[in-house]
Design brief:
By secondary structure, the protein is an alpha+beta fold. The strands form 3 sheets. The protein has a 4-stranded mixed β-sheet with strand order 4-5-7-6, sandwiched between helices. It has a 3-stranded antiparallel β-sheet with strand order 1-3-2. It has a two-stranded antiparallel sheet with strand order 8-9. A hairpin with a 4-residue loop joins strand 6 and strand 7. Helix 5 runs antiparallel to helix 6. The N terminus is likely disordered.
């Protein structure tokens, strides 16, 4: 009985410290509990209290039910990173497709991770191009004051054209099926051009010019 009580108290202390992070790594566990017993982690996973996301990364199973949890995890599995590309375009309603893979950009190496909550992909971008994202508060019941980072619509579009140079012609842009109402009424052209200047890329300039012409902008 005493052993059960001790483990319960350890778990409650563990939960109190690490639940606010959303997901957490072995390094974070070691920071708060330098003498922790790794067997406890194994037991709590088997008991269903914790879910292993990928090697060295965990989340409390109860938190995975939160509506925006997959978006928060996206930023944490690889840092720094923000959500962009196809997923961000779908998030804003700029493309009609449901995007299975949660797409991100990062200054770290390109990577892909299959987890119990989502499939994540990360594409590398130069540090000077790591900008143009915003912080969105999570809709959550148990995590307080958490937010996730996602590209603005204009930056998501530029990231896509930059990282996927296969989009070249008017026919290619039409295949993206960008929402014409969004392009005409909501896309911030001043912001788009301001961002584009920071690239200093004649090739990207030409692709953007063709894209805007396709949508009569």
């Amino acid at each position: 009985m005493q052993s059960f009580l001790n483990e319960t108290m350890n778990y409650l202390s563990f939960r109190q410290k690490l639940l606010p992070f959303g997901c957490f790594s072995i390094k974070q566990i070691d920071l708060f509990f330098p003498n922790y017993d790794v067997n406890n982690i194994t037991r709590w996973v088997k008991a269903g209290y914790l879910t292993k996301l990928r090697r060295g990364w965990y989340a409390f199973t109860e938190s995975l039910q939160e509506r925006d949890m997959a978006l928060l995890v996206a930023n944490q599995l690889v840092t720094p990173s923000y959500i962009s590309l196809h997923y961000a375009l779908a998030y804003y309603g700029m493309i009609p497709e449901f995007v299975i893979q949660l797409t991100n950009v990062t200054t770290q190496r390109t990577a892909q991770y299959e987890t119990s909550i989502a499939r994540y992909s990360y594409q590398t971008i130069a540090p000077h191009l790591y900008f143009g994202y915003q912080s969105i508060p999570m809709k959550t019941n148990i995590l307080e004051q958490r937010s996730y980072l996602i590209a603005t619509p204009e930056k998501a579009l530029l990231d896509l054209l930059y990282l996927h140079p296969e989009y070249q012609s008017e026919a290619d842009f039409m295949q993206l099926r960008l929402d014409e109402d969004f392009m005409q009424e909501e896309l911030n052209l001043n912001r788009l051009h301001d961002y584009l200047q920071r690239w200093q890329s004649p090739k990207l300039n030409q692709r953007v010019k063709r894209l805007l012409k396709t949508y009569n902008l």
